[in-house]
Inverse folding.
């Protein structure tokens, strides 16, 4: 690309690029030589070392050429900004756009099952996506607002699911009684686990929450007589529509309303149930953000020491964030149990926590709209690429890396103030702290 | 240790007695006693590392003193500050502070910063959040009052036009004043300011002096401030305490302290002309 400075700058740019590429090639050589170049093979006489220097040469050549090319094009000095840089004006417009998009998205979600061309598969996928939207919004309280890195969020999802399953199994309680109980129990465990843990900060908090997530799963796995261990719990009662079951019987939902029985009724009902639960989560979070507790969470994320100097009890404030986040996971968990009819510890592995956290981070920490979009993209994308089985994870990782390069603060990176005097201005994500535990 | 805090003479707000703070082998504050009187600006001065910030951290509950008694005359009677945890200091004892390196909530607006400072009364009004979420109770009214109060403070510090801007976007001097306003929104009886004039230009420094006087005279809060700039100290303080290597070396009216030979030796060190000549020598050395 010839420009005014090309004459003076070109040789030095090339020299720097060349040097850097050579260095990268050297590193590649160091890595490739033992990993690609030497292969042990089993022969009759024992193990022998085969040498494949050709492969090493190819790998090093690719690294060298690729790095050189990148240095001369995308990574050229002076070009750096173009990648992942969005001018503040565009950023503000995006945020305003999101404001109108959110009601439209809700409307779309409400009418989706009623559309004539909607198939059962779409509604099932919708239920799955909405479950993760709800989980994402719940975790957003903990990670996005209060800035506490929780890697064991799935534990509370599990507590909710098992609460309903066990209460139904042992006491025959119905879904509608268990739903609030599951939330309360999950919040209770949130407080129990949070109390010792929340004194820790940052990485330490992340590691301990991760461990607690695993502990709960392993307890569920090994407490055989109570939880069924790896066999899980089956035959979990399905939800009823104000006492009407979704079955063929004369007092079932279909017969009462004079409809022909269809298994779709239950699916549609579940869809609206999770939509309602998710919207309640959203509504409560939005309200909390404008209350002193929500402002205290955000202040805590910004500067904990300043909070203490202003008389905010930081331990209690963190605990409420932890407990509320856990409560919504508990609701989602009991929904999961009633939808599946069967649960086992396998549904509550660390990968789930990671997925929910990825949704929150990709969505833009603290942004309700961003989290919803991220959940749709991630879970929807995940399902659509189901055929590609093994490549799915690689693509998933690649997309995440790309998004983090393009938008390091997530899809919606601006923060919108909770109150304003004259004009509500979006706050650039670069000014907002991410919290350190 | 005596169990009940003895009552202080009525003109005293805070009495620091035999305060000692050790970090391992280092004694940052060594047997320091002084008084803060109501309606006065008390300055705590001393060279770098003298232990001034450590005294503040003990008064505001961030450190637990190794030895010593800190008695504050609160509305409910004398309180021992060293027994309270940091967040209780603000609520029960009504002591507020700012920090040497500004600690605002940078990603929140100036207005939001002042609302966070009114957390305790707003929390009560929101029925510990439960009523607030449901939208019942007197929360809306309480919040309007809190916003009014924030507006008054934004006017006083000249930031009303920037109320909706994030705190981190404000110029340095504005951030300093916003931090003071935030501390004042907790309605303190004692305001502790850690180097509020650091990094201000002369005009901002004058504005700060006026603000501190108005806090003393109109809001009736006593001010305890750490300051390096001697001209500021001499100008606004009613009472000066000098620390050096963790020990108190002088205590009294500004003029008395200024002429105290110990202070001159430790703090001012040498005459002004000599300081200048030494500074010139250093800069000459650095540039060569
Ligand atoms: N938490 C701590 N742990 C260990 N040493 C500390 C701690 N806090 C302060 N000190 C030490 O105590 C001494 C006094 O520090 P302090 O910050 O109180 O000084 P200062 O008078 O505020 O100085 P400056 O004018 O530079 O702000 C210093 O030697 C400092 O290194
Ligand atoms: Mg200091």
């Amino acid at each position: 690309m010839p420009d005014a400075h090309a004459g003076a700058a070109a040789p030095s740019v090339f020299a720097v690029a060349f040097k850097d590429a050579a260095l990268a090639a050297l590193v590649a050589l160091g890595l490739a030589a033992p990993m690609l170049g030497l292969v042990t093979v089993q022969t009759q006489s024992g193990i022998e070392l085969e040498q494949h220097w050709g492969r090493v040469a190819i790998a090093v050549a690719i690294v060298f050429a690729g790095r050189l090319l990148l240095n001369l094009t995308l990574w050229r000095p002076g070009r750096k900004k173009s990648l992942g840089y969005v001018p503040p004006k565009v950023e503000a417009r995006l945020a305003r756009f999101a404001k109108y998009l959110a009601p439209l998205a809700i409307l779309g979600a409400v009418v989706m099952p009623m559309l004539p061309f909607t198939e059962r598969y779409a509604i099932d996928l919708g239920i799955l996506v909405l479950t993760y939207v709800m989980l994402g919004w719940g975790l957003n309280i903990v990670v996005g607002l209060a800035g506490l890195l929780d890697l064991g969020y799935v534990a509370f999802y599990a507590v909710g699911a098992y609460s309903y399953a066990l209460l139904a199994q042992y006491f025959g309680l119905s879904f509608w009684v268990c739903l609030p109980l599951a939330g309360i129990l999950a919040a209770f465990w949130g407080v129990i686990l949070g109390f010792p843990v929340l004194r820790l900060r940052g990485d330490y908090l992340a590691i301990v929450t991760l461990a607690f997530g695993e502990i709960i799963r392993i307890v569920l796995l090994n407490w055989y007589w109570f939880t069924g261990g790896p066999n899980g719990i089956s035959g979990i009662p399905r939800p009823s529509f104000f006492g009407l079951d979704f079955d063929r019987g004369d007092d079932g939902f279909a017969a009462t309303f004079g409809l022909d029985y269809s298994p779709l009724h239950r699916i549609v009902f579940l869809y609206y149930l999770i939509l309602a639960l998710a919207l309640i989560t959203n509504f409560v979070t939005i309200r909390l953000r404008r209350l002193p507790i929500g402002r205290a969470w955000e202040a805590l994320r910004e500067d904990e020491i300043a909070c203490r100097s202003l008389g905010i009890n930081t331990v209690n404030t963190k605990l409420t964030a932890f407990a509320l986040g856990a409560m919504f996971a508990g609701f989602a968990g009991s929904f999961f149990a009633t939808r599946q009819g069967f649960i086992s510890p396998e549904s509550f592995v660390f990968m789930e926590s990671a997925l929910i956290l990825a949704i929150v981070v990709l969505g833009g920490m603290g942004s309700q709209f961003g989290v919803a979009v991220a959940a749709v993209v991630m879970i929807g994308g995940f399902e659509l690429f189901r055929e590609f089985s093994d490549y799915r994870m690689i693509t998933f990782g690649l997309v995440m890396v790309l998004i983090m390069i393009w938008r390091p603060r997530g899809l919606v990176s601006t923060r919108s103030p909770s109150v304003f005097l004259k004009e509500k201005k979006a706050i650039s994500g670069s000014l907002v702290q991410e919290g350190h535990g | 240790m005596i169990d009940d805090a003895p009552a202080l003479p009525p003109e005293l707000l805070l009495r620091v007695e035999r305060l000692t703070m050790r970090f391992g082998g280092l004694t940052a504050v060594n047997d320091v006693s002084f008084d803060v009187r109501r309606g006065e600006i008390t300055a705590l001065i001393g060279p770098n590392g003298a232990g001034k910030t450590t005294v503040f951290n003990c008064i505001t509950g961030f450190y637990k003193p190794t030895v010593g008694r800190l008695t504050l005359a609160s509305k409910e009677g004398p309180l021992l500050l060293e027994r309270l945890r940091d967040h209780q200091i603000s609520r029960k004892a009504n002591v507020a502070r700012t920090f040497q390196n500004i600690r605002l909530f940078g990603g929140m607006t100036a207005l939001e910063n002042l609302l966070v400072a009114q957390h305790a009364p707003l929390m009560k009004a929101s029925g510990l959040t439960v009523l607030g979420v449901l939208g019942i109770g007197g929360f809306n009214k309480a919040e309007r009052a809190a916003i009014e109060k924030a507006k008054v403070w934004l006017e006083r510090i000249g930031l009303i036009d920037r109320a909706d801007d994030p705190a981190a976007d404000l110029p340095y001097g504005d951030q300093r004043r916003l931090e003071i306003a935030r501390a004042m929104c907790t309605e303190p009886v004692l305001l502790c300011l850690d180097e509020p004039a650091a990094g201000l230009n002369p005009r901002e420094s004058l504005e700060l002096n006026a603000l501190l006087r108005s806090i003393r005279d109109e809001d009736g809060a006593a001010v305890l401030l750490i300051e390096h700039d001697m001209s500021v100290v001499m100008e606004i303080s009613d009472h000066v305490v000098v620390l050096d290597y963790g020990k108190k070396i002088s205590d009294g009216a500004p003029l008395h302290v200024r002429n105290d030979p110990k202070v001159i030796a430790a703090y001012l060190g040498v005459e002004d002309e000599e300081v200048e000549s030494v500074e010139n020598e250093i800069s000459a050395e650095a540039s060569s």
Summary: Residues 104-186 of chain B form one domain. The CA atoms of residues 64 and 83 of chain B lie 8 Å apart.
